[in-house]
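Re: beginner question about structure tokens

> Can someone show what the tokenized structure looks like for a real chain? I only ever see the sequence side.

Sure, here's an example I had lying around. Input first:
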Amino acid sequence: MVLWGLMLGILLVATVGYLCLLGLFRQRRPQEPPLDKGSVPWLGHAIAFRKNMFEFLKQMRTKHGDVFTVQLGGQYFTFVMDPLSFGPILKDAQRKLDFVKYAEKLVLKVFGYDVVPGDHRMIHSASAKYLMGDGLKDLNETMLDSLSLVILGPMSQSPDASCWHEDGLFHFCYNALFKAGYLSLFGRTKNKEQDLLQAEELFAQFLKFDRLFPRFVYSLLGPCEWLEVGRLQRLFHKMLSAQHNLEKDGVSNWIAYMLQFLREHGVAPAMQDKFNFMILWVSQGNTGPASFWALLFLLKHPEAMRALREEAARVLGEARLDAGRSCNFKVSALHHSPALDSVMEETLRLKAAPTLLRVVNGDQILKMASGEKYQLRNGDTVALFPYLSVHMDPEIHPDPTAFKYDRFLNPDGSRKVNFYKAGKKIHHYTMPWGSGMSICPGRFLALSELKLFVLLMITHFDLELVDPDTPVPPVDPQRWGFGTTHPSHDVRFRYRLRPPV
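And the corresponding structure tokens:
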């Protein structure tokens, strides 16, 4: 026993020593960006980065400028902060900066899904076919029906529906959009009440996984949390089994197309279940939080709420509950609502904060818009954080921390697309969906879901904050870099159904 203990101790010391040497031996080469390894061997700046990514990158940019390399847990990330220099990174046709390699490792770790060759292209192909054009129109109709079921219940309007109901705004929005999205994509049975109960249970478990997700990605969970993640993964694989989907009606063409591809390529049913788990998270992990911020901004800015309700009245008429007690308006109105478009774009500018990552394949040169050239090292990761470098740039977006519902409208009410930095028109003036190879293939569906939900809430419901003076909560710092941010705490609100016409 003593001998084994001694051997394990020697092995531990050797391992720690090796990891430390990896960090100690790395030196900046000619033409490489400034290198900041931090004071802790191997870990580098990992702790400060995870504590508050936004503040950490602000400090690094102040210290090093628009390009710098930092050590994070034995890996080296080169952050590019000049949006005028994003083009070569995002339009890398030769795949010298590879997004797919990073994504494959991530989905295997988080969802247990082992990528099939070609399925990245398959997902984009399926999304172009079923999440745009007529395919999206059909899915929007289904989504509106599902939102009616989730918000009004299986029996539609209850006798006391005109009374005020109180809830946490974040919980209400996340709950409603998650359940409606799940039912719209993965189908229903003939038992509406049972469907809602299953969706509610799924959402409760999804929240548990979502709270652990940021630290799970960075391998910072405690022993009990690792066990909990394993339990949740197994639960989702069971609840989202491909076999279970076959027993439902109305499974979306998008899901059916992708599962058919996997079956044709000999993917085992157990791996199809893991694929479904991945699709659930990527399709429903951001829309609920985004709708929370949108409604909160509208409640805090009466002029914005007034503008949207006036636009809705022009486009929809006085929409109310129809005789069947379901939410009713033409989804085609989504294409004729520039004020709503601007509100959503402004909300995402303020609260969507993804990180775009590319693995460097072979040493290569990055040419900046300024003309400077930097050597990128094979195996490192190039990272963009548009929230700081674009969304919060006062030159691109004056008074960037303020919510301005008409920021993306021209004086004539049309959509504004011309933004400038250093006197040059900038193409990437917001990047909530990523860009290039890593752009979200489901962005049109996600945006439609958000707009449908917001339109439904402002046309069919009266809404108010329990405390009108409550401030907009700060962002939970753990959520920087993971899509739409979450609030540090919920906000109480009241809602009541407007009476039918």
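Each token stands for a local structural state, so reading them left to right follows the chain. Residues 119-353+393-497 form a domain with the Cytochrome p450 fold (CATH 1.10.630.10).
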